[in-house]
Amino acid sequence: MNLSDEKKLKILLVLGGCVLLLIIILLVFGVDVESKQNQDKIGFIITGDVTEKGWNESHFSGMKKACEDLQLTLLYRENIPENSGKCSEAVEELISEGVKVIALMSFNYPTEVRPLMEKYPNIFFISMSTLEKAKNFTSCFARMYQGRYLSGVLAGMKTKTNKVGYVAAMPNSEVNRGINAFALGVQRIKPNAKVFVMWTGDWQNEEVEAKNAETLITKYGVDVLTYHQNEDATGKVAERYGVDFIGYNALLEGYSEHYLASVICRWDLFYKDILQRHLKGELLLTRNHWIGVQQGAVILSNFSDSVTQEMRESLNDINSELADNRNLIFWNDIYDNEGNLRCKENQVISDYELLRNINWLVRGVEVVQ
After folding, report:
1. Hey, what's the torsion of the CAs at 11, 13, 14, 19, to 10 degrees?
2. What are the pLDDT digits (tens) for 269-321?
3. Which of 82, 159, 186, 291 has the fewest C-beta atoms lying within 10 Å of its C-beta?
4. CATH topology of domain 39-142
């Protein structure tokens, strides 16, 4: 081989190496770009209209703000009723559009789409449901019960009849722990007060909600009302009867001073925390994720003029207690309304139990129909 042949061989080897390196770079960075693009797409599914005040609008605006802050693309589907088959269709559509995380923002959605969780193991699902478990699913909860407790304290301060009403969707762990926290808050101020609960059987049925609220006022004599529903039909009835009420999941407008306050969550903080964990690859390590008063995410807000400064200061002190000790509410001796001891002296009900096993109501709560 002469010198010219050696030079040609070296040139060919260098060129070959460059081509190989280029192929590797394209493969690696091409996958990364695609992965990054998919990672930047977040899916969101909810039962109602995203402009509807209450659960729907508050969650959507929170997720939208979180995505904007993190420069993520939000793709969503609204007006998807539970148990209609439409949730599965929405999931398939979002996956086809390249999302990697899907927020299922109604309690029964995860059960509906469980087969799709198995079908798409690389898609991560988050929801506020505890009914399902999967490797690619995380239950994410705001400690709304902390706000419920504060609102119960306020109701205890305001009631004159010692009778408080609660219009609620259905007796699952999420709703029950809210009712229990509320009742314990009421009893902190008025130990002998009763909380009357009426079920609607649905997250959103304004006709039934209104009827229940009216019954609680006219038949059971409650003088403070609250609710666990997607919108504020209960508040409208309370306003009509001149009864104090406490809102949920929205800062309401157009009411008199009978609208005492609202239990709300800074859902932008909630979702931002979750999405940051996703971007860092930490979400897979989190089976149950909570955020609450400690992070400034759950608050009692929008006080009316009928809530005195003294009341506000007391509520602020209790809020500080909750921030220092998240276990303050469900601890020590707690009996259910059938006389069973549910929490012993100096013990705490765990997060696991709060999530999955609150199938009881505390002493002082009466379910009526």
Report:
1. 120
2. 889 988 998 888 877 666 677 889 998 999 999 999 999 999 999 999 999 99
3. 82
4. Rossmann fold (3.40.50)
